[in-house]
Design goal:
The protein is α+β, with helices and mostly antiparallel strands. The chain folds into three domains: 5-156, Beta-Lactamase (2-Layer Sandwich), CATH 3.30.450; 218-303, Helix Hairpins; 309-457, 2-Layer Sandwich (Heat Shock Protein 90), CATH 3.30.565. Helix content is 52%, strand content 17%. It contains eight helices and 13 strands. The strands form three sheets. It has a six-stranded mixed β-sheet with strand order 1-3-2-6-5-4, with helices on one face. A five-stranded mixed β-sheet has the order 8-10-11-13-12, covered by helices on one side. A two-stranded antiparallel sheet has the order 7-9. Strand 5 (131-138) and strand 6 (144-151) form a beta hairpin. The longest helix is centred in the first third of the chain and has 54 residues, at 5-58.
Length: 458
């Protein structure tokens, strides 16, 4: 389970502070240790120089060096070794054994420092802390080696105090930082939590409710504005969905009621064959209308969840247009409208069934809105990979209140007869088919009527 954002921010700040303190602590430890060792080394150089000067004045050093020659005699000591590693002179603390091995003595050509740990000092009862040694050759030619040393107890105590201080101050600093991060994250996320509660309060019963736009943060203001825009789109989509369902129910109820009346009327009394046939034909028209409406609604339902599925096959444009004309010719003859066709014989890849459905709907609309004796012009051709169908009629054109929403489902203008046979789905299906082919559809008015254009990508 993912941790809450506030907890994660606190952990990030705490871990970050721990890493920073660890790095600073390590840096300070190394630097302080280096400074302390440098101070010890400076003292050892001074003591070695005193003994070397004394050797130069006396010619040699022998016997007990005496504690008076050393500062801090309780923590400092010295030896003088000959070339064979034998002790020539020494302070009492290190008089038992040489501090350097024979090989180390012979290797002394210039001053060098060496550190001895406690486990290496078992033969020196007076030394129970690590020591720092400086060895240097004296005499001309170099025949003796002066070794001066000092315990590192003060250095270790200072470093231990530093570690103790950091072990106490570090966790306190981490806790303070984590607490501050917790409070800061809470203050920063509080407006987001309020916005979340307001968003949760938006429901179907209050679709118009919107989130308050905070003025304290530009980022949160942009977030609230974006969410409000999304809620606007959702409300619009819900309203369109409700309107779609209401209109579809109404469109289905009307032919169903007519069909039921025809059947009930036929069953009221015995009828002659001509009357019964007329009733059946009327019922068949209603059934065909219901079937068309159901098919159109199915296409739109699929398109609302995404593009409708298409199956592209190689199709001749002239054959596709001829098939559409065969379906619409009966309606055009009955309405007294002529269909003028300009088509090419190009072969293109598209879904002929879907395109046929779109063209049929547009042609039927054009014939329906053309006056008797009018002309509907259809042109079909391909240009640079785009198939263009243009259908123009000689009717009154699109109403001004319909032109902008002509391709919406169940779109009807104010001056359109509500009882007209159209369902308002034809142009919506045509646009869905065009978009499924990667194209578009648009409508416009011309001086002679209305014009609808379909553009399909092949």
């Amino acid at each position: 389970m993912r941790l809450p954002l506030r907890v994660r921010m606190t952990l990030v700040f705490g871990v970050g502070m721990a890493v920073v303190l660890a790095g600073l602590g390590a840096f300070d430890y190394v630097r302080v240790k280096g400074d302390l060792l440098a101070a010890v080394d400076a003292g050892l150089r001074s003591r070695a120089q005193l003994l070397a000067n004394a050797a130069g004045r006396a010619g040699e050093l022998g016997g007990d060096l005496g504690e008076g020659r050393l500062a801090d005699a309780d923590e400092a000591f010295a030896q003088v070794l000959d070339a064979s590693g034998r002790i020539v002179a020494a302070t009492s603390a290190v008089s038992n054994a040489p501090l350097l091995s024979v090989d180390e003595v012979r290797a002394v050509t210039k001053a060098f420092f060496v550190t001895r740990q406690v486990e290496e000092l078992q033969q020196y009862d007076a030394l129970d802390d690590p020591i720092r040694l400086l060895a240097t050759a004296v005499g001309e030619p170099a025949r003796d080696v002066v070794v001066v040393g000092a315990t590192l107890s003060d250095v270790n105590e200072a470093l231990q105090r530093l570690i103790d201080l950091m072990s106490v101050a570090g966790p306190v600093a981490i806790l303070v930082t984590a607490g501050a991060a917790w409070l800061f994250a809470g203050a920063a996320l509080h407006p987001v939590e309020l916005m979340r509660r307001d968003a949760a309060a938006v429901s179907a019963s209050e679709p118009s409710r919107r989130l308050p736009v905070p003025r304290s943060s530009a980022e949160l203001a942009r977030l609230a504005t974006t969410l409000n825009s999304m809620l606007d789109r959702l409300q619009e989509a819900i309203e369109r969905e409700r309107q779609f369902v209401d209109t579809a129910s109404h469109e289905l109820r009307t032919p169903l009621a007519t069909l039921r009346a025809e059947v009930e009327l036929a069953l009221v009394r015995r009828r002659e064959a001509p009357e019964l046939e007329a009733s059946l034909r009327s019922a068949l028209e209603d059934i065909n209308h219901l079937q068309r409406l159901a098919e159109d609604l199915l296409v739109l339902a699929r398109s609302r969840g995404g593009q409708i599925p298409i199956r592209r096959v190689r199709t001749r444009l002239d054959a596709l247009v001829s098939k559409c004309l065969q379906v619409v010719n009966a309606q055009s003859h009955e309405a007294g409208v002529t269909i003028d066709v300009d088509r090419s014989d190009d072969t293109v890849e598209l879904d002929p069934d879907r395109v046929h459905q779109a063209l049929r709907n547009i042609l039927e609309n054009a014939v329906r809105h053309s006056p008797r004796g009018g002309v509907v012009r259809l042109s079909a051709g391909r240009t640079n990979g785009t198939v263009r169908f243009v259908i123009a009629d000689s009717g009154p054109g699109f109403p001004a209140d319909l032109l902008a929403s002509a391709f919406d489902p169940f779109a009807r203008g104010r001056r359109q007869d509500p009882g007209s046979p159209g369902t308002g789905l034809g142009l919506a299906i045509a646009r869905a088919v065009a978009q499924a082919h990667g194209g578009s559809a648009f409508a416009e008015n011309t001086p002679s009527g209305a014009r609808v254009t379909l553009e399909l990508q092949t």
